[in-house]
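Usage

Read records sequentially. Each one opens with the input sequence:
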Amino acid sequence: MVLVDFDDTLVETAPAFHQARDALFSRLAEEGFSEEESFRIHHDQVEPELLAIFGMGPFRLEPSFRDTYVRLCASVGRTPDQAVADECGTLGRDIMGHPTLMPGSLEALGALVATHPTVIYSQASHPDYQMKRIQEAGVAELVPDHRIRITHHKSRETFLEALQHFGVKEPGQSVMIGNSLRSDINPALEAGARAILVEPYEMWHYDKVAPVSDDFLRFTTFPEAVEHFLSGGA
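and closes with the structure output:
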């Protein structure tokens, strides 16, 4: 069985996050805060706290962007301007749009589904929202809903639970294809499965971890990974 990640494997997600964050830092610069200080407050203080509350996904961005501004003001003893706080929050909320497919991803997924049992294995704090995105992207037309599994947090344990749910008794009979070392590659390797990394265009800071082993393949795009896999190379 092949398990396929969704965000930044089949659809572009990280670029929208990065563009929104860059827009936030630009707006904060207009308020007199340096990009270095904005990044420090956002990355080191706000994001760890809100990830614990809201989890992965876009729902944390509006409060995260707003709180970054409020904390920057507190750090210099300034009273936050409510209009600016609202503007920062809007920059985070606006990324919740229609998912953008990566070139060739649906065609490659179709080729994979035609030859191997395939599951979409995704991570999200709001499963209903994530399922809607998967459907809007056209993925559900190739992979039926009962072959889509959305977990709150990807780990070795949830990976094994997914395999058990789909009747895979031996992890070595499965392959995980995804873009995240932390969430896709390491849990699969720790479970005894094979893994293929679709190398991200820009790795999110949360994903900057070492692989638990080097026993996995790397490709630049999902279609390249599928082509290699279907040729018997994985």
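Summary fields computed downstream for this record:
- Residues 28 and 69 are 7 Å apart (CA to CA).
- Strands lie at 2-4, 11-12, 100-101, 118-123, 148-151, 175-178, 194-198, 217-219.
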